[in-house]
Write a structure and sequence with these properties.
The chain has helices at 5-25, 32-37, 44-55, 58-69, 78-101, 106-113, 116-150, 154-202, 206-212, 230-236, 238-247, 249-256, 261-275, 278-293, 303-311, 317-352, 358-379, 391-399, 403-415, 421-441, 447-468, 490-509. With 511 residues, it is mainly α.
Amino acid sequence: MELSFVDIAFFLLFFVIVVGVSMYKSRKEETGEDFFLAGRSLLWPMVGLSLIAANISTEQIVGMAGQGAGNVGMAVASYEWMAAITLVFVAFFFLPRFLRSGIYTMPEFLEYRFNPASRTLMAVYTLIIYVGVTIASVIYSGALTINTIFGMSLVKAVWLIGGIAALYTIWGGLKAVAWADLFQGGALIIGGIVVLIVGMKAVGGYDAFVTTNADRMHMILPKDHPVIPWTALVIGLWIPNFYYWGLNQYITQRTLAAQSLKQGQLGILFAAALKLLIPFIVIFPGIIALQLYGNQMETPDAAYPLLIRNLIPIGIRGFIFAAIAGAVISSLASMLNSASTIFTMDIYKRLLKADVSQRGLVTMGRLITAVLVVLGCLIAPHLGDPRFKGIFNYIQEFQGFVSPGILAAFIFGLAVKRSPAAAGVTALVASPVIYGILYFAVNEMAFLNRMAITFGVILVLMTIITMVKPLSSPVVMPVRKGFEDITLRPAVKWFGIGVIIATLVLYGIYW
């Protein structure tokens, strides 16, 4: 698809504004708290939009639209709508405890609750997953989309995406990322709505669309479905949801940077409300693409790019191009900043150079960001191998090796006050072992079911260890000044309840 001069000009102008504003707003980042947590100054609109921009990348645009066009259909919307409910619980229960402790990273919390070994294990796991899976996957899926729609070579698209994200992330850290997210998150939602409207018009409107694709509009699938059986929906899907939204550093980092508990909670609930819209602007277009261009698809992951290439008119393509590129760049920038935070705070400062200055922390954060960009860009072009079964499946599958253990360690550690350090370490060590055995022994089992089994076995192990050797007294967590009171405010409570009700209504409509 050819871009007109107007399209190219709009794309360039958009990113000049995004990069320029984000770098200007973050020009005074001098301490580790400034660079990694935006000086803990983010207000709720920025927290909410930044969460969405960090989350919705081409992993969703390509992957979830592909799942919608494949054998999953509307059921893949559960990742979004169950995420909305998950976010409510994160806002109500997780965030108050994390903010009160004053942590920089999620592994840091495990050291306070269990021991230094658990912190190191989680930090290493997280870095491996970021470099080998999430960073490379986001770069690849973004480059694939740009290649499919606009004809740019895959390798050039990889380095374009990596270069733009690195530019402002290296410069200004989380504050630069958050300001860029305001523009890129907004562009993503508006661009998605434009694609949905154009697509619906092409298939004759909503009623005709639902009638033609009635077999794909169900949220509940048979228990033997290979991707999202109803059993996984009831049990397994909660594990990646709670891990991702509550414990995943690149998501939680902007909530840890909130100005206050109320601002952080409102930001999370704002993101939860926006999550309810995502299936309509991502999954619906994937199904529309299958209806219109199914005979042209070499793979389901090509659904969304095909729809844009064939339907979006000249003059709007530049905006869509900017929205898609912005989505992947925003997610990539968030991952880079969070990975550099974990390396700098959990490994470099704690294990390699305890007396490092604040300026040294910022310098190391910038250096490791650059290294991660290069590694991600080198790995990304190799992720098109068919054995990975699509980029969305690749990300979910390989995160399954560590997410059940991390979630079990946090939930058990928060709920069972006398659980010993050995229980937390066991959860982290056992997770890849148990999941790996299931992966190779019962590969045909849906990965969500493997996650559920792994999670259940780990909880049993932690229970046994705690019963055999409980702590003599509960662990006392640190309390950050000004965060002693974590009582749920009425505005936060009713906002969250409203999101849950709206989610249940949507499930009722597309049951």
